[in-house]
Amino acid sequence: MADGGSNMKNKKGRTVQSHINTLFAAIEGIIKPEVTREEKVLIAGVGSGGGRVAEELVRIGIQEIVLLDKPGEKLEVRNIFRHTLGHSDIGRLKTVAMRDRLKDINPGCKVTCANIDVVSTPDKLPPLLQGVSQVYICVDNEEARHVINQAGVEAGIHEMILGAVFDGGCGGEVGRIKPEGACYACMTAFLERTVPPPTFGEEKPIDYSNPNKGTPKSTPALNMDIAQIAILMARIGLQSILGRTNPEDDFRGNYLLFGNRVVKDLFPYPLFSKTYIIPKTEGCLICGSVKDNFPGR
Q1: Mean pLDDT of 207-229
Q2: Strand partners of residue 110
Q3: Distances (CA, A) of 27 to 57, 61, 64, 250, 279
Q4: Are the CB atoms for 185 and 160 separated by under 8 Å?
Q5: What pLDDT score was predicted for residue 188?
Q6: Is the pLDDT of residue 1 over 50?
Q7: pLDDT digit string (tens) for 123-158?
Q8: pTM for this structure?
Q9: Closest-CA residue to 159 (of 280, 41, 47)
């Protein structure tokens, strides 16, 4: 007797695979599927920024993603206008709802949900980093950023990419951490929110910090303000992947400053952007001392 159930499952499986093949056929003229499908990424923080990063990565062919957020982080009504999720997900864990969203875009991707507090239980983070090539740091507090930075450095992650939106969504920053470059501890030690970035003999240095001279933090901002930084994070992640085989495709630096709007002494015009190289800190307790910083162009 024929197994009708098995036939239905097989047919569904073939349909899903057909959809996946069609999905990537639309972009393979730009990105070959084999370039991104072997990557495994972890996204720490599944809020409005992290959710956008996750979507962009799935759309370029990333096949395995770990979504990490604090226990009990659920989607609330106030999140809707700035999140990729919608009203149908209100009350659900952001990791679980985002997993379903990603699999709705690409049914073939593997998504793992992890709800842990990396600050109070940092020992639970290293197992999640096994096999991970990229980490996207989308959390909104400094202590968690430093915990993830240390765990990523110790795990030898190819790239860690972090982003922050400045007060009121006026702009933001994106940093990239690689084993041979500055880690997040180096970056914060160098920046101090009062030290100007290197200018390589160009115009007078600007104070690149946020307008209030404080630590970048989560504040009221338009969805598009947050999305700009999230998409830049995903773009730098993609360029980092491409740059492993073709250096010409790589991101030239490790710190990007981006302005959505004009801010006196910070962003001279809308959509301002500038890339810098922040050096490793001699004797950094996290990533060690530096001999040669990678060259900028």
Answers
A1: 64
A2: 64
A3: 13, 9, 18, 19, 36
A4: no
A5: 92
A6: no
A7: 999 999 999 999 999 998 899 999 999 999 999 999
A8: 0.84
A9: 41
Sheet with 272-276: list strands edge to edge.
Answer: 110-115, 64-69, 40-44, 134-137, 159-165, 171-177, 255-259, 272-276
Q: Which residues contact 49 (CB under 8 A, 6 or more apart)?
A: 138, 163, 165, 226, 229, 230, 233
User: What are residue 189's DSSP bridge partners?
Assistant: none
Q: What pLDDT score was predicted for residue 192?
A: 79
CATH hierarchy code of domain 35-276? 3.40.50.720
Total Cβ atoms within 10 A of residue 134 = 23
| Three-class SS state of 263 | strand
Give dist(CA 217, CA 227) in Å, integer: 15
Q: Where are the alpha helices (DSSP H) in the chain?
A: 4-25, 33-36, 48-59, 94-105, 125-128, 142-155, 184-191, 223-243
Name the residue among 175, 132, 174, 176 with its Cα closest to residue 151: 132
- Show the tokens assigned to 175: 């940093």
Would you tell me how many other CB atoms lie within 10 Å of the CB of residue 10?
A: 11
For the chain, how are helix, strand and coil distributed in percent, rounded to 5?
40, 15, 45
- Model confidence over 24-83: pLDDT tens digits? 777 777 787 778 888 999 999 999 999 999 999 999 999 999 999 999 999 999 999 899
CA distance 33 to 60: 8
Round to whole Å and give the CA distance between 187 and 279.
Answer: 8
Whether residue 51 contacts residue 145, with contact meaning beta carbons closer than 8 Å, is answered with no
Greatest Cα pair distance in the chain: 81
